Amino acid sequence: MDFRIVGDIENITTIARGPSVQIRRYLDEQFGRGSWRKMKGEALIEWENGRVEFAEVHWFEAHGIGRRLMKRKRTLRR
């Protein structure tokens, strides 16, 4: 991850859960077995070079494991 979340993630929505998470087997092997969900939300992010933007972010999370593999998908207008 070459950015960090500044503040809170807003408008959080579940995209997929359970068997619908296509990389569930990979997530189980890398981070441990869990009830994985693919999530999306909107957040203010700061890149390593200091640039700040409001963007849509996607990630995977499981109870007891936390957020993993966070990606910025697109820049949003605020």
**What pattern of helices and strands is seen along the backbone?**
EHEEE
Write down the overall geometry: elongated
Number of domains: 1
The beta-strand count equals: 4
* Helicity range: 10-25%
Q: Whole-number average pLDDT?
A: 94
The gyration radius over C-alpha positions equals 13 Å
Largest beta sheet: strand ordering: 1-2-3-4
Structure classification: mainly beta
Helical stretch tally? 1
Low-confidence residue ranges = none
Distance between the termini: 23 Å
Q: DSSP strand (E) fraction?
A: over 45%
Describe the largest sheet: 4 strands, antiparallel
Task: Give a verbal description of the structure.
- The protein is mainly beta.
- It has one domain.
- Helices cover 10% and strands 60% of the residues.
- The protein has one helix spanning 24-31; strands spanning 3-17, 37-47, 52-62, 66-75.
- It has a 4-stranded antiparallel β-sheet with strand order 1-2-3-4, with no helix packed on it.
- A hairpin with a 4-residue loop joins β2 and β3 (52-62).
- It is elongated.
